[in-house]
From TrEMBL:
Keyword GTP-binding found: no
Annotated protein name in UniProt: Oligopeptide transport system permease protein
GO cellular component, one term: plasma membrane
Keywords: Cell membrane, Membrane, Transmembrane, Transmembrane helix, Transport
């Protein structure tokens, strides 16, 4: 007699086909995790992700509430303290105009991160929208949008930024801080969106060949519904990885443009502006460069580390 027949003698005949019980956790059935659930579970085990996230959270808190860390006005000048080294009174010392470098580095976090976040949002939103449309429709639509993106992709970043920002700055002699930030954000986004467009296009071309898209088409779903409900959630992973890494790169790009004298400038306070102001005094007062450059390097490195961790968690080959 088999084990199953013996069990039937004790418990009675089976009413229906026997099904395996779902795994339980604490008395509740555990639902199968998707790509994002698996990625989040994997990310929480990565020290690289935890360290990068903590650094970014601290920087975001500094940008949102700079007054918690310093009560000094970053624009207050005292020429008698010009280029004084770090001390108990001023932890990072004073710059050429006698302004507190620590206060300026704290308040500069807001402008630098704002440029990076806004540039990334514009780049991903516009480039992603163009890319998923090109990948879904294909044909002449794909060719037209791809050729259009190559116009911007062929422009050298620094040269294109010089042309665009010089044209903007010629219109207003003394632009406001908001206008200066908007100019830099738009310039970075205009010159960077083709990369996110190509990433999204490749993901869309792959996704539209999947069975769930073919099934949606067979059921008569419209193109916008297929794109938004079926393709977009499955195309976000590579764009998310790119945006995380690009955010740090855009913060560095802002510093580069500011150092060249065409990016952010007074009255805006940013790490790039501070680095640009210190370039004539690096040998005499290296602390003018060291501290804002340190903030910049740590921030860019944190976003790059975060992007690497997210990429590894979302890559099936790493499983």
């Amino acid at each position: 007699m088999t084990d199953q027949s013996a069990a039937s003698l004790v418990t009675g005949p089976a009413v229906g086909p026997e099904e395996p019980a779902p795994p339980t956790t604490g008395g509740k059935s555990q639902k199968p995790r998707g790509l994002w659930g698996d990625a989040w579970l994997d990310l929480r085990r990565r020290p690289l992700f935890i360290a990068a996230s903590l650094i970014i959270l601290v920087l975001l808190f500094i940008a949102a509430f700079p007054g918690v860390f310093t009560s000094v006005d970053p624009s207050w000048t005292n020429l008698a303290k010009s280029r004084q080294p770090p001390s108990a009174e001023a932890w990072f010392g004073y710059d050429n105009l006698g302004r507190d470098i620590f206060a300026r580095a704290i308040y500069g976090t807001r402008a630098s991160i704002a440029v990076g976040v806004l540039s990334t949002l514009l780049t991903v939103l516009f480039g992603g929208a163009v890319g998923i449309i090109a990948g879904f429709f294909g044909g002449w639509v794909d060719n037209l949008l791809s050729r259009f993106s190559e116009i911007f992709l062929g422009l050298p970043f620094v040269l294109g930024a010089i042309v665009i920002l010089t044209t903007f700055n010629a219109e207003v002699a003394i632009p406001s801080a908001t206008r200066i930030v908007a100019q830099v954000v738009l310039t970075i986004a205009v010159l960077s969106w083709p990369i996110s467009m190509r990433i999204m296009r490749s993901a869309a071309i792959s996704a539209k060949q999947q069975d769930y898209v073919k099934a949606a088409r067979a059921l008569g779903a419209s193109a916008p519904r297929i794109i938004l409900r079926h393709m977009l959630p499955n195309c976000l992973a590579p764009v998310l990885v790119y945006s995380t890494i690009a955010l740090g790169g855009f913060i560095g790009a802002e510093a580069t443009l500011s150092f060249l004298g065409i990016g952010l400038r007074d009255p805006v306070v940013s790490w790039g502006v501070m680095i640009a102001e210190s370039r004539f005094y690096i040998q005499a007062a290296p602390h003018l460069l060291f501290f804002p450059a340190g903030f910049l390097v740590i921030t860019v490195l944190a976003f790059v580390m975060l992007g690497d961790a997210v990429r590894d968690a979302l890559d099936p080959k790493q499983k």
